Amino acid sequence: MDKAIAVHISFLEQQLSVLRKELTEEGRTRVERDRIESEISAAELALVYYRKALQLEQQLTTQL
């Protein structure tokens, strides 16, 4: 299970990198920047949960 979680974490980290790059591109409207910032916030929040899930998974497997 931890490999699946690690894959999700990796994907989200890559997505964050892309979104942050998009945010710095010139010519973006306020609406576009707001959308990108919202996606960044959602991805960062998801990362917190996935990392916590991975940590919990690792703790549970070491206890067995």
Can you give a write-up of this model?
With 64 residues, the protein is an all-alpha fold. It has one domain. It has helices spanning 2-24, 30-63. It is elongated and about 55 Å long. The two termini are 15 Å apart.
In brief:
The protein is mostly helical and 64 residues long. It is built from two helices and no strands. The protein has one domain (2-63).
SSE layout:
Elements: H1 2-24, H2 30-63
Helix pairs in contact: 1-2
Low-confidence stretches: none
**Number of folding domains?**
1
Q: What structural class do helix, strand and pairing data support?
A: mainly alpha
What's the SSE pattern? HH
What is the CA-CA span between the terminal residues? 15 Å
- Assembly state of the chains shown: single chain
Shape: elongated
Mean pLDDT: 92
Proportion of strand residues: under 5%
**For the CA atoms, what is the radius of gyration?**
15 Å
Number of helices: 2
Largest sheet data: none
E-strand count: 0
